[in-house]
Amino acid sequence: MGFIKEFKEFAMRGSVIDLAVGVVIGGAFGKIVSSLVDDVIMPPIGFVTGGVDFSELKYVITEANAAAGTEEVALKYGNFINVIIQFTIIAFCIFIVIKGLNSFKKKEEVAAEVPAQLSKEEALLTEIRDLLKNK
Questions:
Q1: Which of 22, 30, 119, 127 is 20 to 30 A distant from 41 in Cα terms?
Q2: Whole-model pTM?
Q3: Count of CB atoms situated within 10 Å of the CB of 55
């Protein structure tokens, strides 16, 4: 019974739940970026380059042979280009989020480092307290 209880405590930690939420949101964000690249960014680029569909670009090593029952062997570098663009967009978005979080943390640290200024009465009372303590 101790193992199950220990696992339950581990699984219910905030960091594990945050990680699970991050993975789910990251998966959905990945789909959004894939659609952005495939459906919005690459068609105009294909149009400018003369109707080239980047996802179909490939270097054929061996042609398919139906009689021999072999499939085509090819390097699909066009799809690789799409994935690199998707990765770049996701990495840039994560960079922006982390940069924003870091600037927010710096503002909190600066606010915590600034000591509160004592009023004249508080400074006088503190001095009197210290003098009485030393007597």
A1: 22
A2: 0.56
A3: 17
